[in-house]
Design a protein that fits this description.
heterodimer, A: 289 residues, alpha+beta, Uridine Diphospho-n-acetylenolpyruvylglucosamine Reductase, domain 2, Uridine Diphospho-n-acetylenolpyruvylglucosamine Reductase, domain 3, Enolase-like, domain 1, five-stranded antiparallel beta sheet, four-stranded antiparallel beta sheet, 12 helices, 14 strands, B: 795 residues, Aldehyde Oxidoreductase, domain 3, Aldehyde Oxidoreductase, domain 4, 3 domains, six-stranded mixed beta sheet, globular
């Protein structure tokens, strides 16, 4: 469990990082928190010729609340985002999700954008980005582009990031009034990847009736699965919405797989159960707004 | 400070060192050594057609590549079958590097030595092995069907077959007794694989001294003395020229008692050949696929019992998964077979096992060593009887207990040490009474009803076991008091975290009347002690503890004799207190043990003040006798061995309360209670720590851990991401109570405690989940996904 040989680069500026990455092309890999990349290197599941370490780029270690949402820089650690009070106030789902990401020592090192780019369908943050309709900002020398979440996750461990590009930040949009969120998951052990997990978003009108309700499910398919359950739960007051019907809709929609930890049937059942819990909590949070 | 330390909860002296990074584990050694890595089989069963190293030989930093063909004759043979048994008719072991056929994923095929481990792994990746694939055999049922063979010359894949039968008092065999019984039940039970999984894997570092023609080997082992003998034999070296040292060892739990591992002979061989230090540190992936696993068994049970739940006959047939090889013999299924009756008097008992080969990692003892399976079988049987009769589960157990006045109790079986299985002491009814009180057994029905009213499902479970500990044949202890007053204790067996530096020092300090600070303990270093068996089978405290006590008593006797002469007193009037020999009742008349140590050696150069001071006690030596009298030796030291007539039997009972989520099927342990009896306690804090650790491993085995092999013999979860050892967050607080029924078999009255905690946990959790769910649990471990499946299948 030692990595194969690679050239190590530690650029001192974003511009230099972009140049290095552009030069390395498909042989380059960005090292930020290293919580997924380092194990993959040690197990020789990845063998990039060039590692571009962005840990010196303090300008990427930023978290800011902007008019349209929370912008998280590529070097912002999970723990930094989780603890930021203004982030929790602007977009509570981030803290709700980050508390479920692994363990504190991993959150101290791992990065939010790194998790998005890694695109593990069992991870929490891709589901959050999809549910909120966020985007990822990708840069290469002289150009940047924003890719909406809906098009960013293309498969298990696959994203729209092209060789030579650096994901410099992600935007998690804030919500209109009378919106509520929640994240529920079940993992085998505390902090493990979820056997099933559901992020929920519910918006109410002034009469506390459901306007929109949706969930994003992890470990439910090759990419996070977004399910609009507005129809299923009915345009009813939050307190009497048909969350059980919403849960059925979620179970029908997802395509989980069997692995060593759980059967597909169990995951399907569990995802529905968690969807119902998460939707109820999200509706309650929206009512309390 | 007091010197009566035996039985005190002394804080572990090794912990500050180990907890602050001062430990020296195998990978901390060998700075500058060449490092080895192995090309291991990616297939479960295949014939090697060709090994092509041409792409690898130009790598800068490569030192050597070895295959089976390079091995000298003694090394090219299969490794030893350590513990033969007449029932093991088809024992098979592997060669250190595969010769022609590989029989599990992970079997070593090529050894690479390079300047460092990175380069060695680069080279491994460039070596191409051409395999002809053979049909793999995975799981005991496929092995028993024997459509394909793991070893071409082992018919039916059966390595061993053994039947033991104990007839009833009336002379009935178990099957007859069952036929004649008022009630009978028959069922099948399954336990899956787990593994010792020490945090530090295996590892070897070897230094050859070409001038001295001597070899020093550090290895992360549970038996340095036996590794030494194996290396000397396999490399053809004179035993006195081989030293083997176990440095700090980060856990063993059984896997490191197997010896010699291929790497333990290959690494020293390469070091001699290359004239350079060589080391190999096992990584986690290697540990999963190339060390050892345990636990997997399928059991077919038939039981006959009366209206009170008394077992009149028990007939168990076991299919034991032995993996690809049997280097450690059939100890595990023998222990399962013989420890299965536990604390009970079974009317008649028949047990039959077939130990079958599969194309998976070999099976050798893991903490508990066959007992968790035995207890799962017996305790599931007790619960089935209770269910059948509508009786309380503890009442059925009470009806079957051996009573306190029935010791010594002969179970009529032959134990793992080849000696009769005779329980020396215990109080099983007393133990169950304590447990029921601790967990609140009698009031649980009410608790359960209250929970049900809130929509919660909770259940209670219980499990009892008896554990043979302290197996022989012997251990030794050496104790030396030097002229600075320090006491140096050594014993040959090794330490892997048991707290020997503390517990053995407590024994020595108590026996010799010296402060703990003056006692140091060395274990597992063949330079200090050459004869030993090893640390396994809950034997270290019983075996070395007693040997050290006996050695201390020799030293004490000599110290009193020498001091008596110096003080012109009768040895019977002397005592040793705080490191001073003094006349009882006259504390002023005393001589320090340090001075006695000087007096014990007639060669008395005045190196230090102590030696100078001793001359005042020297007196006039008689010219009629030599300075070292006949039958005497210079020095204040003693060596003795403890060799028990047979094992001593510890026991314990556990109970748990679990909650199962009606929707998510998650299983949570709410309370866990342990009553434990290991005779006299040397250090109650260490014993509690052993129990806590054991329960933690037991929780892993009950709810989380399994070796997920697919039908091709590929291990699908060979990493800590997917092989789920419980974290602190999954292990419940363990409530403990101790019962002490001393062993009459050894001077200290102690029994082993190392394995205890793990033994009944699967049985207890199965019992509790069954109680919570009202669904029969016949297979462990159990995950939420499996509980979900059982619920859907339930009528």
């Amino acid at each position: 469990m030692k990595p194969p040989p690679f050239d190590y680069h530690a650029p001192g500026s974003v511009a230099e990082a972009l140049e290095t990455l552009a030069e390395a092309g498909e042989h380059g890999k960005v090292l930020a928190g290293g919580q997924s990349l380092i194990p993959m290197l040690n197990m020789r599941l990845a063998a990039p010729g060039h590692i571009v370490d962005v840990n010196r780029l303090a300008e990427l270690a930023t978290v800011s609340v902007e008019s349209d949402g929370v912008r998280v820089g590529a070097l912002a650690r999970h723990a930094q985002v989780e603890r930021a009070e203004q982030v929790a106030a602007a977009q509570p789902l981030l803290r709700q999700a980050l508390r479920l990401v692994a363990h504190p020592v991993i959150r101290n090192r791992g990065t939010v954008v790194g998790s998005l780019v890694h695109a593990d369908p069992a991870a929490e943050l891709p589901a959050v980005l999809i549910l909120l309709g966020g985007s990822v900002r990708l840069a290469r020398p002289g150009a940047t582009r924003d890719v909406p979440a809906a098009g960013f996750f293309t498969g298990p461990l696959e994203s729209a990031l092209r060789p030579g590009e650096l994901a410099v930040s992600a935007l998690f949009p804030t919500l209109p009034p009378r919106s509520g969120t929640a994240f529920h998951e079940v993992s085998r052990r505390h902090g493990d990847y979820a056997v099933a997990g559901v992020a929920a978003l519910v918006r109410l009108d002034d009469d506390l009736r459901v306007v929109t309700a949706g969930v994003a499910c992890v470990s439910a398919g090759p990419v996070p699965v977004l399910v609009d359950v507005t129809e299923a739960c009915g345009h009813r007051p939050a307190a009497s919405a048909d969350w059980a019907s919403a849960a059925r809709a979620v179970r029908d929609r997802i395509e989980p797989e069997t692995d060593v930890h759980a059967s597909a049937d169990y995951r399907r059942h569990l995802t529905g159960t968690l969807a119902e819990r998460a939707l109820r909590d999200a509706a309650r949070a929206a009512s309390d707004e | 400070m007091t010197t009566k330390l035996f039985g005190e909860p002394v804080r572990r002296r090794e912990d500050p060192r180990l907890l602050t990074g001062q430990g020296r584990y195998l990978d901390d050694l060998g700075e500058g050594a060449f490092e080895a890595a192995f090309v291991r089989s990616p297939h479960a069963h295949a014939r090697i057609r060709d090994i092509d190293v041409s792409a690898a030989i130009d790598v800068d930093g490569l030192v050597a590549i070895y295959t089976w063909e390079d091995l000298p004759p003694l090394l090219a043979e299969p490794l030893p079958l350590l513990i033969p048994h007449p029932a093991l008719t088809h024992g098979r072991t592997a060669t250190p590097l595969a010769r022609d056929v590989v029989r599990h994923v992970g079997e070593p095929v090529v050894m690479v030595v390079a300047r460092d481990r990175y380069l060695a792994e680069d080279v491994c990746a460039l070596i191409t092995v051409d395999y002809e694939l053979l049909k793999p055999v995975v799981g005991v049922e496929e092995a028993a069907q024997s459509a394909h063979l793991v070893h071409a010359d082992v018919p039916g894949n059966v390595g061993a077959h053994l039947v033991q039968e104990v007839r009833s008092a009336a002379g009935l065999g178990a099957r007859e007794a069952i036929e004649a019984a008022p009630h009978t039940l028959a069922f099948r039970l399954d336990i899956e694989r787990s593994a010792s999984m020490p945090l530090e894997g295996r590892g070897v570092c070897a230094r050859w001294d070409a001038d001295d023609r001597s070899l020093r080997v550090y290895t992360s082992t549970q038996t340095s003395t036996s590794v030494r003998m194996a290396i000397a034999a396999k490399l053809g070296l004179p035993l006195p020229k081989v030293e083997v040292i176990a440095p700090d060892v980060g856990g063993g739990f059984g896997v490191k008692i197997v010896h010699p591992w291929p790497e333990e002979v290959l690494v020293p061989w390469a070091a001699i050949l290359l004239g350079h230090e060589v080391k190999w540190t096992e990584d986690r992936r290697e540990h999963f696929v190339s060390s050892a696993h345990e636990r997997a068994q399928t059991q077919f049970v038939r039981v006959g019992f009366d209206d009170a739940g008394r077992v009149l006959g028990l007939d168990v047939t076991i299919l034991h998964d032995h993996g690809a090889y049997t280097p450690y013999g059939i100890i595990v299924p023998i222990i399962t077979s013989t420890q299965l009756p536990g604390p009970y008097k079974l009317g008649a008992y028949r047990v039959e096992f077939s130990s079958v080969y599969t194309n998976t990692v070999q099976v050798t003892p893991y903490r508990g060593a066959g007992r968790p399976q035995a207890v799962f079988c017996m305790e599931r049987t007790m619960d089935r009887i209770a269910e059948h009769l509508g009786a309380d589960r503890t009442a059925v157990r009470e009806a079957n207990f051996i009573q306190p006045d029935e010791f010594p109790y002969d179970q009529g079986l032959i134990f793992q040490d080849g000696r009769p299985l005779i329980y020396d002491s215990g109080d099983y009814p007393g133990s169950l009474r304590m447990l029921k009180e601790l967990i609140g057994w009698d009031s649980f029905d009410r608790t359960k009803e209250l929970a049900a009213a809130e929509g919660r499902r909770i259940g209670i479970g219980v499990g009892c076991y008896v554990e043979g500990t302290g197996v022989g044949p012997y251990e030794g202890g050496h104790v030396q008091v030097t002229s600075d007053g320090r006491v140096h204790v050594s014993t040959g067996l090794t330490s892997q975290g048991q707290g020997h530096e503390t517990a053995f020092a407590q024994i020595a300090a108590s026996e010799l009347g010296v402060p703990l600070e003056r006692v140091s303990v060395v274990t597992g270093d063949t330079r200090r002690f050459g004869y030993a068996v090893g640390t396994f089978a809950s034997r270290a405290a019983v075996m070395s503890g007693n040997a050290i006590a006996l050695a201390c008593r020799k030293v004490r006797e000599k110290a009193l004799r020498i001091a008596a002469e110096a003080l012109e007193a009768d040895p019977g009037d002397l005592e040793i207190v705080d490191g001073e020999v003094r006349v009882v009742g006259s504390p002023g008349v005393a001589v320090p043990l340090a001075t006695v140590a000087v007096l014990s050696n007639p060669l008395r150069y005045a190196f230090d003040a102590e030696a100078g001071r001793a001359t005042q006690f020297a007196g006039t030596s008689s010219f009629d006798r030599p300075p070292v009298a006949e039958g005497e030796e210079p020095g204040l030291e003693g060596r003795d061995y403890y060799s028990p007539i047979r094992s001593t039997f510890a026991s314990g009972m556990h109970a748990a309360i679990v909650e199962t989520d009606p929707l998510t099927a998650e299983i949570r342990i709410l309370r866990y209670a342990v009553v434990h009896d290991c005779g006299n306690l040397i250090n109650p804090m260490i014993v509690e720590g052993q129990i806590h650790g054991g329960v933690a491993q037991g929780v892993g085995g009950a709810l989380y851990e399994r070796m997920a092999y697919d039908e091709h013999g590929q291990l699908l979860n060979a990493s800590f991401m997917d092989f789920l050892m419980p974290y602190a967050t999954e292990v419940p607080f363990v409530e403990t109570a101790h019962l002490q029924t001393p062993s009459p078999l050894n001077p200290l009255g102690i029994k082993g405690a190392g394995e205890a905690g793990v033994i009944p946990v699967s049985a207890v959790i199965a019992s509790a989940v069954e109680d919570a769910e009202g669904i029969r649990i016949s297979r462990m471990p159990i995950s939420p996904s499996e509980l979900f499946d059982l619920r859907r299948a339930a009528p």
